[in-house]
Design goal:
Order of helices and strands: EHEHHEHEHEEEHEHEHEHEEHHH
Shape: globular
Structural class: alpha/beta
Bound molecules: nicotinamide-adenine-dinucleotide
Radius of gyration: 20 Å
Oligomer: single chain
Helix content: 40-55%
Distance between the termini: 18 Å
Strand order of the largest sheet: 2-1-3-12-11-4-5-10-8-9
Amino acid sequence: MEFKIAVIKGDGIGPEIAEQGIAALNRIAEVYGHRFHYEYVPAGGAAIDEYGDPLPDFALEKCKQSDAVLLAAVGGEKWDDLPVTQRPERGLLRLRGELELFANLRPAIIYNELKDACPLKDEIVGDHLDIMVIRELTGDVYFGEKGGDDTRMYDVMNYSDYEVERIARVAFDLARGRSGRVMSVDKANVLATSKLWRNVVTKTAQEYPDIELSHMYVDNAAMQLVRNPRQFDVILTGNIFGDILSDEASMITGSIGMLPSASLGASKLGMYEPIHGSAPDIAGKGLANPIAMILSCAMMLRYSFDLEREADAIENAVKAVIASGARTADIAGGGSFISTDEMGKKIIDAIK
Ligand code: NAD
């Protein structure tokens, strides 16, 4: 099959890890007989330097015309003093909005061999932890009316039924390929938007009799994630609760350089990126872990291209390389480690 991929290398470690992601995709193309066409698109700090805009219109157009967008990371000190509306991250927000990417998927996985990196006790984590947080991305208090004066400010929290229904469907469809369990997280004991959320999620679930749906209040969910994370499989939640819970879930894995994410909309065109930033402190030193980037490519194969076997091949290669003891500095726990390129090469060689 043939696909067009818009690639944003971005800033800091972005170009280094993007290179490894592309190399993994090229290996998949070779082994499975596909063709991937890459369109390199400027965004973030690099685009501000060259075009004075974190997402020039032509870059947005190129993303819209591709089958998927692969983003490494943007941002850095150099652009920190710019007004909020002109900063590198603004380019990403605009891209998500313009592509109407309303569903953010963040897997939080603990690999058995890396359990030492997890801040929780062994008996809490068990042998394996694999949680998928599905966060609504384009509604809620982040997008409601804002206003006020010097003494009082407000941000309006709102959700419409159709927004809740479409994200619930993403969660139920996805849960079908996993354990079939979905935990919807809200604050329905206090918030009107959460009452609507719970009603719509419950009603939508009637069309998915094979799905086991439960509900939990967000304060309890935050506690349960560190008390007994293994009770969760798919967590479905709104924008602000998802922002906080997905960071909490990813941090219990203890390895920011390992975790990918996907942002999806109504069409197959999605955006795939590591959860970490541009890590300016280690840029250009060969210290960046390319695994989050490579696993983001696997998510792209699965969700935008329906290439499940190929996505599995990348994920299995990562597992095999971790099991073999290969480590980049961030996951070496002070022991010996290999470079970004060496880690990338090992994974590529392990793709079957
Ligand atoms: P960061 O995620 O870039 O770095 C946090 C820490 O984790 C640093 O010590 C870094 O060295 C380490 N780290 C991150 N990724 C790593 C990897 N792949 N391998 C090894 N170590 C890794 O967060 P930050 O330092 O708060 O932000 C740096 C810049 O990135 C800022 O300009 C911020 O705005 C931007 N940022 C961008 C995105 C994005 O592009 N989506 C997300 C978050 C932050």
